[in-house]
Amino acid sequence: MLFKLLMPYINKGTEGVIFIQWYKDEGDKIDYGDDIFEVKIEEEKSNLVLETPERVLASLAEPENTSEKIHKLDMLVRVCSADIGFLRRTYAQEFVYQKVGALLAILTTDVDEEINESKLEAASTLRVVPNLISYPGIYV
User: Fold this and answer.
1) Which of helix, strand or coil describes residue 125?
2) Of 51-65, 68-82, 83-97, which has the strongest mean pLDDT?
3) Which end of the chain is less packed: N or C, by CB atoms within 10 Å?
4) Over the Cα atoms of the chain, what is R_g?
5) 23-44 pLDDT, tens per residue?
6) Mean pLDDT of 74-97
7) Angle subtended at Cα 121 by Cα 27 and Cα 104, rounded to the nearest 5 degrees
8) Collapsing DSSP states into helix, strand and coil, what is residue 32?
9) Rounded to an integer, what distance in angstroms lies between the CA atom of residue 64 and that of residue 55?
10) With 50 as the cut, is the pLDDT of residue 5 above it?
11) pLDDT by residue (tens digit) across 57-80?
12) What are phi and psi of 24, to 5 degrees?
């Protein structure tokens, strides 16, 4: 059986992500819960509030200093499998922007199964689970 691996919808308002790396190579078996790939989400937030003691004290000292700032918020997300299959062909390249719904890879249930790309449109989508692994940096 043929599966297509599409870039999942990870975060509200995110139309795409930076593909970071594959955790599996072509030909590898993927089991339930296996990490498949990692992506980075870059978001801009207006007036991002981080309630630290220093920030609270600063706002009390200078309440008029509330000018709008744009903050960049980067999140790393590791995507794991909720299905079983063999990673047969990968399309996503490291450090390249991928839109939600983009074809990342083709998988099959049998390692020797012939890949017929004409049947890809009707293929099932591999189920995946995105897991937030870190906020590597928040900066102005």
Assistant:
1) strand
2) 83-97
3) C
4) 20
5) 999 999 999 999 999 999 876 5
6) 94
7) 45
8) coil
9) 14
10) yes
11) 555 555 555 445 555 667 889 999
12) -125, 150
**47 vs 33: CA distance, rounded Å:** 36
Secondary structure (DSSP) of 43-112:
EEEET-----HHHHHHHHH-TT-----EEEEEEEEEEEESS-EEEEEE---TTEEEETT-EEEEEESSTT
Residue type, 92: A
Beta bridge mates, 76: 40, 134
Q: What residue type is 56 in one-letter code?
A: V
- What CA–CA distance (Å, rounded) separates 91 from 134? 25
Bigger pLDDT: 130 vs 137: 130
Bridging pattern class, strands 2-6 and 124-125: parallel
User: In the prediction, which pLDDT does 64 show?
Assistant: 55
Report pLDDT for 138. Answer: 46
Q: Quickly tell me which residue has 């689970």 as its tokens.
A: 129
Q: Which two tokens stand for residue 37?
A: 């790939």
19 and 4 Cβ atoms separated by less than 8 Å: no
The pair of structure tokens assigned to 131 is 């897991």
Amino acid at 8: P
